[in-house]
Design goal:
The protein has 99 residues and is mainly α. 39% of the residues lie in helices and 7% in strands.
Amino acid sequence: MTTIGLIRHGITDWNELGKAQGISDISINDIGKIQAKKLGQRLSQDEDWDMLITSNLLRAIETASIIGNIINRPISSTDERIREINCGLIEGTTEEERI
């Protein structure tokens, strides 16, 4: 049987500010790094993971890299087809600003 795990990237400063990220290439922040580390530790206790595939956005790559270091798996590939959608002009704005 194949097991597939879907993992969202760690938190970013824009997440904390309520800003739309879309395809803006935002890094995870210190909390996001802690989240990724904790998840990596949990995943290392489960089963062996064969590969990591991530979107090509920095926040996803950073999250996967931290997890991969803990479970001893490099990122197998990146794919733009699994990244967030392009939010156009609303990227970097809060809901309040958009209203």
